[in-house]
Amino acid sequence: MNHATYSKFKETTFKGRYVVNEQVGDFLETLNSDFKVEIVGYSVEQRLIRAVTMGTGTQKVLMWSQMHGNESTTTKAILDLLKLLQSDNPLAVSILKNCTLKIIPILNPDGAEAYTRVNANEVDLNRDAQERSQPESKVLRDVYESYQPDFCFNMHDQRTIFNVGNSSNPATISFLAPSHDAERTISNSRAISMQLIAAMNTELQELIPGQIGRYDDGFNANCVGDTFQMLNTPTVLFEAGHFPEDYEREKTREYIFYALLKALLCIGENEINSYPQQDYFAIPENKKLFFDVIIKNAHIIDSSYTKDIAILYAEVLEEQKIIFQARIQKAGCTEGYFGHSTYDCANENDFSALKKQSFWNVLQS
Fold this sequence. Notes:
By secondary structure, the chain is α/β, with parallel strands linked by helices. The protein has helices at residues 3-9, 21-28, 73-85, 90-98, 109-114, 135-147, 188-205, 224-230, 250-268, 278-281, 348-355, 360-364, and strands spanning 36-42, 48-54, 59-64, 99-104, 151-157, 163-164, 173-176, 212-214, 235-240, 286-287, 290-296, 308-318, 321-332, 338-344. The strands form 3 sheets. An 8-stranded mixed beta sheet has the order 1-2-4-3-5-9-7-8, sandwiched between helices. A hairpin with a 5-residue loop joins strand 1 (36-42) and strand 2. The N and C termini lie far apart (49 Å).
């Protein structure tokens, strides 16, 4: 599928970073009768947690998004996928014939409303897989146990700090085949996860070469992905990251859509074994070498700065919109780091452009 075709299925009522339960509920009500929408539980603040089930195939896939409420890119991609699956597109027909999908678009609706990582009790649901102290954690585990999926897709966003390997490429999408033990051994389910990621990577390298990373595979039994891998269900972690000049993550959304499409077709058409496990390890690991803005020779702005300044944006919810507030993260040498934007105050054009930026007042305070 190309961009022109994707554009037909992009759900245009959803844009930007702030995606909440009410919006998603309204969208789910538009789905036809082949899509079963059900309430599978309630959040701490008694918001509905919905799941939608579709397809008639033998391969059962469970996916969930916004376990962290402020990670909405994959939710948007899932809604695009649902719009495709309602169509008569041959890819949709194939997926629904070969697979049955159960999707929880927003697992943490309270966190989505407040635009926080944690739930209303300030608990990170992705560290609650064993104790299951929170209602949202119980909902996910109950759905997992009743549905008994053959595959799990754990959908997240990652910060703009991540690059691919040692390169200056942003990690626009990262994947992980979660570990199932502290030794990070490769169980059968983890091997399948690796092959499925290799398939998606092959597809994405044609679209965004060098912008796919591999997430750290340190084992944590309290994480949901590790837990489901321990239960022998092939599980894939999706991390939606930064695409150049795409802070609203509309381009990243599109690439997550392509990744989901490839994965589901690969599962449905029984093509996983076409992708060698070792191809997973060929994906460079993520590193944290990016800042949103690097300003070189910052002493020209203010003599109190010794050399450079590095800025990270804080995502702040204001009137149902996410505002990116610049905050100085580092002052000093930025050698070895990359900026999504870089200004050199010693360059007249750069200095002039810098003065026009919304964060110029931050630099002078």
